[in-house]
Amino acid sequence: MGNNPSSNAVSQCLSSAVGGNAGLLAFKSDPLYQLNHVKPYNLDIHITPAAVTYPKTADHVAAIVKCAVDYNLKVQPRSGGHSYANYGIGGADGVIVVDLKNFQQFSIDKNTWQATIGGGSLLGDVTKRLHDNGKRAMAHGTCPQVGIGGHATIGGLGPTSRMWGSALDHVEEVQVVLANSSIIRASSKENTDVFFALKGAGASFGIITEFKVRTQAEPSESVLYTYTINAGNAASKANTFKKWQALIADPNLSRKFASQFILTELGVIITGTFFGPKSEYDALNITSRLPSSKSDSVLVLKDWLGVVGHWAEDVGLQIGGGIQSNFYAKSLAYTKDDTLSDEAVDKLFTYLDKVDKGTLLWFVIWDLEGGAINDVAPDATAYGHRNALFYHQSYAVNLVGRVTPTIRNFLTGLNKIVTDSLGHELGAYAGYVDPALGDNGAKMYWGDNLPRLQSIKAAVDPKDIFHNPQSVRPAKA
Q1: CA distance between the termini of the chain
Q2: Which of 184, 211, 260, 414 is the most exposed place for a label (fewest CB within 10 A)?
Q3: Looking at the predicted structure, is the pLDDT value of residue 160 above 90?
Q4: CA dist., res. 302 & res. 185, Å (int)
């Protein structure tokens, strides 16, 4: 908390910042503070913010930031609150949280189809509002409770990203509050360095109160497929993965095709969406390129909200959607040159078969990316993995208490098998933030863009007001 200022002085400053409206503030002395206001997503990481604020205007946000500067406190914005390490509530004690739930503005220009979206909007609401205003859509992830504020400033990967790019690739302009309490517009034409930084490392640079995004016409027809594979032992699971990897590594694979390979205690599922008519999907001959399945489901939908709703149901089955829990997660970003050899795949699935996982509730998802995401130049935005072909995300939950060393060692060992097999480190996705990466996390999240980000940070936030344990630090003079 910096100089440990008087809590009374801080509370008075914050009260003034929101016009004296006590309903827009909460402090750690308040009853049920953790339950009603802090609301940690990862119950394994205990955080006590100095205050949680609920501003209604950009001027409120600017005044809150000024309080933080005056009293040498750190600030973090919260949109949906789904940071894996609770960085939306600071990631450490004593931070001022700026909860953006009141920023729900929405409009759409039906000439340009550019939409204006408030920084506190959840993805489920974004989908519905775009649909209701011209049957429009944008790329984003599958969990409807996630907030656009974090999602579209860190990456925002989802099933349509191979066609349309990531969520942050849709962002054309923002209104943002900076560390000096100024409220500015940033785009490719003004405040371009800030715009670059916000598109991939937003929480380190400011608080976005409003996005202007390009939108796409909803797909008129989509095919949702799920194959539950006959794969009982480690060897058969490895064989299934080899075939899936060969499929998604095909450079001619349609960008309309999204796919996930999901491994759980119950077995293997290959699932995804094809954004086009079933005749085009059938022409891909997916079933002939995968092992036989014990059951399969191919569902054709012409209702876009139905498609997105189906994704949400799948997320709920995999990880409980937006449910709080004690969990640990890790990720790796694979490029087209990082496909695993048959020997490496065999070793990986033998490990997964034999290792003590410490829990029955775990999964690993290998998620196809590439396509339009890779079309953007690596240095065009802060997002650090323009060359990623696919990611894996591993996730383990302890339903009866804190995450154990056994659980952590399981996921750490999984990543080590991959990187040892490839002979080099891989990047990690900042949307699946991993505090165990420590100071090395910034390099793994933002890659070669990190030095530029550090320079921009030194220019616009030299006191590191927008801070969490793995945020971008200012370049040293």
Answers
A1: 24
A2: 184
A3: yes
A4: 38
304-319 and 123-132 helices cross at what angle (nearest 10)?
Answer: 170
> How does residue 313 score in pLDDT terms, banded at 50, 70 and 90?
confident
Q: How far apart are CA 76 and CA 40, in angstroms?
A: 14
Structure tokens belonging to residue 11: 């509370």
CB atoms within 10 A of CB 374: 18
Residue indicated by tokens 């344990």: 469
Count the Cβ atoms, other than its own, within 10 Å of residue 226. 18
| Residue 315 pLDDT greater than 70, yes or no | no
Whole-angstrom Cα distance, residue 314 to residue 457? 38
| Whole-number pLDDT of residue 318 | 53
Quote the tokens at residue 122. 């959840």
How far apart are the C-alpha atoms of 162 and 272, rounded to whole Å?
A: 12
Spatial separation of the C-alpha atoms in residues 252 and 259, rounded to whole Å: 15
Q: How many Cα atoms occupy the beta-carbon half-sphere of 468 within 13 Å?
A: 29
Residue with tokens 């990623």: 388
CB distance 97 to 57 below 8 Å: no
Q: Give kind and range of the element (H or E) at residue 185.
A: strand 183-187
Look at residue 281 in the predicted model and tell me its pLDDT. Answer: 96
Distance CA 425, CA 143 (A): 29
CB atoms inside a 10 Å sphere around CB 20: 9
pLDDT higher than threshold 60 for residue 3: no
- Residue 175, strand partner residues: 185, 210
The DSSP secondary structure of 302-341, one letter per residue, reads: --HHHHHHHHHHHHHHHH-TT--BEEEEEEEEEETT-PPP
> For the whole model, what pTM was predicted?
0.95
Q: What kind and span of H or E run contains 258?
A: strand 257-264
Tell how many helices (H) and how many strands (E) occur in the chain. Answer: 16, 18
Residues 157 and 368: their CA atoms lie apart, in Å, by 10
CA-CA distance, 169 to 159, in Å (whole number)?
14
Cα distance between residue 445 and residue 85, in whole Å: 14
Task: Report the C-alpha gap between 471 and 464 in whole angstroms.
Answer: 9
* Beta-carbon contacts of residue 288 (< 8 Å; ≥ 6 apart): none
C-alpha torsion 81→48→205→23, nearest 10? 70
Q: What is the set of domains in the chain, with CATH numbers?
A: 7-99 (3.30.43.10), 106-218+446-460 (3.30.465.10), 222-443 (3.40.462.20)
pLDDT band at 1 (very low <50, low <70, confident <90, very high): very low
Distance, in Å, from the CA atom of 237 to the CA atom of 32, rounded to the nearest integer, reads 47
Exposure string (b/e) for 453-462, b if CB count within 10 Å is 16 or more? bbebbbebbe
Give the Cα separation of 5 and 51 in Å (integer).
13
Please state, in angstroms and rounded to a whole number, the distance separating the CA atoms of residues 133 and 16.
Answer: 37
